[in-house]
Design brief:
Elements lengths: L2 E5 L20 E2 L2 E2 H11 L4 E6 L3 H8 L8 E6 L19 E6 L2 E3 L3 H11 L3 E11 L3 E5 L5 E6 L2 E14 L14 H10 L5 E5 L3 E3 L3 H14 L3
Parallel strand pairs: 1-4, 1-6, 4-5, 8-12
Antiparallel strand pairs: 2-3, 6-11, 7-13, 8-11, 9-10
Amino acid sequence: MEHAVILAGGKGTRLKPYTISLPKPLVPIGERPILEHIIIRLAGQGVKSITLAVNHMADLLRAYFGNGAKWGVNIRYSLESKELSTMGPLRCLDDLPDTFLVMNGDVLTDLDISVLRASHERSGSEFTIAAYEQHDRSEYGVLHTNKQAQLTHFEEKPEMVALVSMGMYCMSRSCIDLIPVDTFFGFDHLMRAMIAARRLPHVHVHRGYWLDIGRPTDYEKACDFSEDYGLR
């Protein structure tokens, strides 16, 4: 894929105090902001142009990344006049290619986007979700009961496994018609709209590394990751 849309307009409220004076994409991992790591990786995988969908502290993002020449990509900006969530900003873009990458501006992963695109094309779907098998251990003992409220089985802090969205999508331009104009419209809204219209999205499971930097604990993991993988 030669074009990517990076969603970088959120306020990053869950990542406070790191986001009090900086937009989340500019919070550093190692010696570079989160978003710079993403752009470097995308450029290394053949992405030529990037649209940054911005809102909160947009001037700081524009001042840091400029036109993208430093990283060998062409960066453009789409400024939201109000919060449009994750999918709403796409309706503001009128020059998208037939197939493009959409991703959150706070994701660290070793996903090969050429593999994601190939999976998307094989599926014949209009929208492919990069997914990750998340393992979380419960902090509590889990009780299983029968209809008489009697304990039938007990699990001590079991591991829960769920397939979760990585915040990365391969998308066909034809999906845009399901996104309303100038409306707060998230990933969840688009998925429900596609399912209702029987235009079912495809799910591509990634078995490598993925971290969504949404909370302070995630940020600490990301900093450890940067040391282990030599991110500078």
